[in-house]
Write a structure and sequence with these properties.
Helices cover 33% and strands 28% of the residues. The protein is of the alpha/beta class and 299 residues long. It folds into 2 domains: 3-218, Rossmann fold, CATH 3.40.50; 223-283, Lrp/AsnC effector binding domain/regulation of amino acid metabolism (RAM) domain (Alpha-Beta Plaits, 2-Layer Sandwich). The relative contact order is 0.14.
Length: 299
Amino acid sequence: MTLQLKNVTKRFGAFTAVNNLSLKIPERSMFGFLGANGAGKTTTFRMILGLIDQTEGSISWNGNKIDYSTTAEIGYLPEERGLYPKLTVKDQVVYLAQLRGMKKQAALKELDIWLEKFMVPEYKQKKIEELSKGNQQKIQFISAVIHKPKLLILDEPFSGLDPVNVELLKESVKEIRNNGTTIVFASHRMEHVEELCESLCILHKGAPVVHGNLKEVKRSFGKKNIAIHADFDLLFLKEVTGVLKVRETAEGVHLQVESVPVAERVFREVAAKGFVRKFELEEPSLHDIFIEKVGTTYE
């Protein structure tokens, strides 16, 4: 089952929120959307879900339009949380599961499994408003996945969570993907996209500026990073042709260089000066690529 967007554009009056976006997201993959606020990520999700119509282009899931007939196959965690504060966790989750076509007993069984997994079984009878924001986020996540969707859309799933719960949620997302679900998620945190996704799209002002397999995107970027630790001053490397950036660290320097041949030149220069404790060639980070393509720091 493939999610496909072809030349999708969304305009609100004179403002273009998404501009000519084409994507193909294969079954059982994890796909990441990156972009600053206002880049068009949430608008794209809402079009995929059929909550708003695209101005131009087409969107299909397994070759068909997404509508009420596909409700049971899709899960959605919105960026704006939308739980009923006065309902208990049990009543809230079971109600939403039934909307997705689940029977009550099946939903209750799944809910118990998820509450155990998230180490909060005692929350079953608590009202949503009695929970912390982080725990409300867990319940919202459970509501999105309880019916075992084939396509799962997560809009900023890790926001508001402490590091322990981020890891808990990440492991759950990986497990869901391994069980055959296609996952599309937007995150402000580049390291999450880097760790979890095989492919990604960086949106800037509604248009895709980077799109493709993560490894291929990094390889095609060309520039490399080098971490060097040594017992002597390394700032002379600023003068080496092809060294683009030099940042001092506690133990040495971190460089960005134009290419692998430049890295070889840097290695020879450093080795000639004395003992080198560490010389590590690294792929560019998503942060490096984002700044290059968008021309601004990502917040």
